[in-house]
Amino acid sequence: MTKQEFLNELAEIMQLDAPLNGDESLETFVEWDSLSNLGVMSMLDLEFDLTVTTDKLREIKTIPDLIALAGEHISG
Amino acid sequence: MANTNFTNVKISGIVTVVPQIVKLIDDEIDLYGGNQKQIDRIKKSIGLDRRHVADADTTSVDLCEAAARKLFKGLGLNKRDVDGLIFVTQTPDHFQPSNAAVIHGRLELDSSCASFDINLGCSGYVYGLWMAHMMVASGTCNKVLLLAGDTISKYVNPRDRSTAPLFGDAGSATLVEKTEVDTKSFFSLHTDGSGNDFIKVPAGGFRCPTTEKTTVEYEDTEGNWRSQNDLYMNGGEVFNFSIKIEPVAINEILKYSKKTIDDMDYIIFHQANKYIITNIAKRLKLPLDKVPCETVGKYGNQSSASIPSTINDALSIKLSTSQQDIILSGFGVGLSWASASIVLDNIYCPTVQIYNKG
């Protein structure tokens, strides 16, 4: 998955009106809540076979952090 | 491995009754700090909208009694012929006696009727069906009345967003009986007790009796309020559990019954919420028209009654007029999960009934 595809997926999970550019702080979004967390957990598991706990995800503060969590699975 | 199959046992009818009071998530905007956008997101992705909840003096016994009476009438069943009664619930009228005994008395069933409760939640309907099939197949009983009902809405703290808008109440009645027709039903049952903390009412039993202290409400890190007497659910962990084990469970029951997804007309999951069901369906590549998932938006998560409720809500006409191959799968508190591959053939299956308090 490319970085752009990942950002598109994330924007859809959070049901944002505007696209993400990739360097945002997640904490600035009211949409970054437990609902979005579940969506991201599901995407990471489904797309990358990556299991992330709720506690681990709660530590994530920015989109670059989230991309780093997915690591090698995201290119470009 | 807890897998088994039965022959010459059939399900003849299923009835579900829900209480009259309807609550709407739209009316609970204060729970979301006045944020309508968040409510819209929850409605869209989790599928929450309306739910039917019981009033203070209506219990799972009342709802299941109404369902049982409707079932007896619909099938033209002589209640003296019922020789087995199972009540699946985690919200009984009392610790003692069992709900089964209470309703046995109310329905004036025969004294030669084996009656007991099963303490299970979202997996409980399938466990109850398995037990009912076993009672018939063993020759113990000819006609088993399976009641599954809960009033989980009474267990939630109204200031807890992780549970309050989710749970609805319902009671169901199913008749399982002996048949000369060469039927075949398959079951697989599972438990993972290491997850027993994920869905829990901490106080009120003998480990932690109700005291003044257990009624004190506290705020958790998510800003939700509850006391030790209220239902706690770790939504994230339950979600992870569900999307991991359910695809495996469905593949297991298919393999065991030597069937494929294409052979099945419907796969009916416990209606945890729409998001979990569509997520599981996606992982299994199930066509969504085989997977009813609108029950939560109409009635709420009905715990042990969610599978029969979905059958009555979505398949009433189909099952009243034809034969359908169906997989049932329940998963939740325990953690516990169970699946069945069954055939429902022209059964008594009215739409979901509204409780008439009378």
Structure description:
The complex is a heterodimer of chains A (76) and B (358). By secondary structure, chain A is mainly α. Chain A contains 4 helices and no strands. Chain A is globular, with a radius of gyration of 11 Å. Chain B has 358 residues and is of the alpha/beta class. Chain B has one domain: Peroxisomal Thiolase, Chain A, domain 1, CATH 3.40.47.
Structural class of chain A: mainly alpha
Main sheet of chain A?
Answer: none
Q: How many beta-strand elements of chain A?
A: 0
Radius of gyration of chain A from CA coordinates: 11 Å
Query: What is the first-to-last residue Cα distance of chain A?
Result: 9 Å
Uncertain ranges of chain A: none
Shape of chain B: globular
Keywords:
heterodimer, A: 76 residues, mainly alpha, Non-ribosomal Peptide Synthetase Peptidyl Carrier Protein, Chain A, 4 helices, 0% strand, B: 358 residues, alpha/beta, Peroxisomal Thiolase, Chain A, domain 1, six-stranded mixed beta sheet, five-stranded mixed beta sheet, globular
Concise overview:
The complex is a heterodimer of chains A (76) and B (358). With 76 residues, chain A is mostly helical.
Lay out the secondary structure.
The complex is a heterodimer of chains A (76) and B (358).
Chain A: H1 3-13, H2 34-48, H3 54-59, H4 63-70
Chain B: E1 3-7, E2 9-18, E3 21-24, H1 36-46, E4 50-53, H2 60-75, E5 84-88, H3 99-106, E6 114-118, H4 124-137, E7 143-150, E8 170-178, E9 184-191, E10 199-200, E11 218-219, E12 225-226, E13 232-233, H5 235-256, E14 266-269, H6 274-284, H7 295-299, H8 306-314, H9 316-321, E15 323-332, E16 336-345, E17 353-354
Parallel strand pairs in B: 2-17, 5-6, 5-7, 14-15
Antiparallel strand pairs in B: 1-9, 2-8, 3-4, 7-8, 9-16, 10-13, 11-12, 15-16
Helix pairs in contact in B: 2-3, 5-6
